[in-house]
Amino acid sequence: QVQLVESGGELVQAGGSLRLSCAASGRTFTSYTMGWFRQTPGKEREFVASIKWNGGNTNYADSVKGRFTISADNAKNTVYLQMNSLKLEDTAGYYCAAGISSFRYWGQGTQVTVSS
After folding, report:
1. Of 21, 31, 77, 88, which one's alpha carbon is 20 to 30 angstroms from that of 105?
2. More confident residue, 111 or 29
């Protein structure tokens, strides 16, 4: 059974940094793409960043380019999202996802709140 468990979300001041973690288990993920998405109440879930576990190709939403970095540690089966220069509008629930042609598996999310 695939499990994705996010951690690292917390309250942080604008301009600060956080690192989110997504621990993956239940299968071999080498052919998978791992992604981070975020969602605020009343809005659709939006793509943040993704990485191909095999090859490391990354992709970012325009809103986070230059501030967020996604990475993967194969030995730990963990994907990270380093978030720098956080803005108020980055406040959201952040979700980890995994899939091959589409994101089939999702974690429960971790809350990031950016305060002024």
Report:
1. 88
2. 111
